[in-house]
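Q: Hi! First time doing this. I have a protein sequence and I read that you can turn it into a structure. Is that right? Here it is:
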Amino acid sequence: DGGDDDDDDVEEKEDDDEDDEENDEKGENEKESVEASSTRPLGSLIHTARNHTKAITTLLTTSAHNGLERILTCGIDGHVKFYDADTFEVVHALKYPSPITDVAVGGKGTRFVVGMSNGNISVKTRTAEAAEKSGRGKKRQARGGTYAYFVRGKNEVADIEDFTVEVDKKKKLAKFDKDIKGFKYASALTSALETRNPTTVSAVMAALDMRNGLSQALSNRDESELEDILAFVCRYIPMPAYTKLLTKVATTLANLYSEGSCSDQVRELFNRLKHVVEEEMGVRRKIRVFQGMLDSLVERRMLDEMEGELDI
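A: Yes, that's right. Below is the predicted 3D structure, encoded as structure tokens:
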């Protein structure tokens, strides 16, 4: 019986040794990774980071001046990794020539110390003002393709020293402009006449004339529309700025509409237009006569001055 108990003890010891070897192998495989578990009683795994190529020697947490938590890891591969404590993404990394055995941060983030296996210690320092400024300026960068990346800068406010560029909003096209672009020439002219602005109406007429659409815009008009066009022509044709264009419009109207097919009101407007044109032609003749008289007087004056110079 005693021999049997000894055999059982030996077998149990061998089983324990095998379990220890399996755990050691498992530990060797996971030395290059960092597992973060919650502090809840169940200790559930919340993240596993594998950013080192060799075993990790030290892990610590620290706080930045802007209130963000950082997790630091260093390893035999000579790398120091800085993780965001919320997303566990690598936000910064350092490389050293020898395997790292330990790392520490002190002085409220102003001193960073790294110990290496070759016996060297690397100490990096910066002033408190620089650390404070660096901590304030750091902002979490939104990843491309996310909603945060799409709306980045939405709530940014320009500083006093910033140069702002004011972008003029694209003006909406007027109805007559849309009609011209859509080759609706008659509708474009009607919309322009509704504005009762001579500059707008003349610009639309000129645009139609350039597109050879003036005849199309003036044809097939009812009496009320024709009266509006004739009234506009009669009022503004004496003005030099509109005379040339409205003369072409009046000629086109006379060719399109005969007196026999028009109402009394339209015939009256045509007669009024004729009278206005005759008056304007009479004024132009008088202006030319007066201009000729002035030219002759100016030439006579110049000849007298030249003769006086020759006598001298």
